[in-house]
Amino acid sequence: MAAKKKILCIAYGGGHVNMIVPVARALRSRSEYDVTVLGLTTAGAVFEREGIPHIGFRDLVRDGDAPALEMGERLAEGLSNPAVPHAETVAYLGLSYWDLVRKHGETEAAKLYEEKSRRAFLPTTVFERWYQEVQPDLVVATNSPRAERAALTTASRMGIPSVCIVDSFALIEYEWIRENSYATKVCVWLDSIKDFLVEKGRNPEDILITGNPAYDFLAGENLAPQAEELRKQKGWNERKVILWASQFLPAVHPRTGKQGDPDLPRKVDSTLFDMLERHPDWQLVLRLHPSETRPLASLPDRAEFSPLTDDLNVLLKATDAVVSFTSTVGVKGMLLGVPFITLDFSVYADDAPFSQLGLARGVNKLDDLEPVLAEVLAEQWKPSVSLPHFGCATENIMDVIASLLAGKNG
Question: Record's superkingdom (predicted)?
Answer without folding.
Answer: Bacteria
